[in-house]
Amino acid sequence: MARSDQAKPLAPLSGYYPRSDEVDEAISAEFDLHRRYCCLRCCGCAAAVLLILLVTILVLFFTVLHIKDPVLTADRVAFHQLLRSTSLGVSNFTVEITVSVRNPNAAAFHYENMTTRLYYGGDVVGEGEVVPPGKVGARGRKQLNVTVEVEGGKVAGAEPFAGDWRSGNLSFHSETRVPGRVKLTDAIKKKLVARLDCDLTYVVDTQQVIKN
User: Which superkingdom (predicted)?
Assistant: First the structure.
């Protein structure tokens, strides 16, 4: 009886086997896809970093690096030697004004001087100046005192004086100017002029000053 375990020829394997050039093309395509993905990710990261830098620069520009004008405030105003008995035709008097200078900047405000003019009836009747120059520290505050010498004859000769004197209320207007500069860096610096305009009413009987 013939043996049944005689070797049989192997059956051919089924399926498709790509050629070597097709394999190379597939690998190249996958590499290109991966490279494009990496490029897009790098570009996205770079764009995000640039956006953060831009936002940071804008925030700094509008806060720390933005130079603002100093703020002036009239803390105290006092009239001296101006009484009911004063003969304004020949007698002068003085006005003492205390002004606070507030510097909102991140660098010192270097001022040249402070000049105050006093008006009555639209005309200048006195002027005072603070010298020498000085500075107000970063985000600091400083008080400056100025004494204005007022010519009584100019006040008495003004058109509204007769009526104001009878009523006991004299209306003045003061203008204070403080020129200076703020320097954050060599490239970021600016000249400034701080200003304060104030209407003053002097009550002769009580010597009270009302600031408007």
Answer: Eukaryota
pTM recorded for the entire structure: 0.69
What's the distance, CA 203 to chain centroid?
37
Report in angstroms the alpha-carbon separations of 14 from 11, 21, 74, 187: 9, 21, 100, 78
Contacts of 84 (CB under 8 A, 6+ apart): 168, 204, 205
Contacts (Cβ under 8 Å, ≥6 apart) of 78: 95, 96, 209
- Contact call for residues 128 and 121 (beta carbons, < 8 A): no
Tokens 């107000």 locate to 136
The first and second tokens of residue 167, run together, are 């009523």
The pLDDT tens digits of the residues spanning 108-145 come to 999 999 999 999 999 999 999 988 899 999 999 999 99
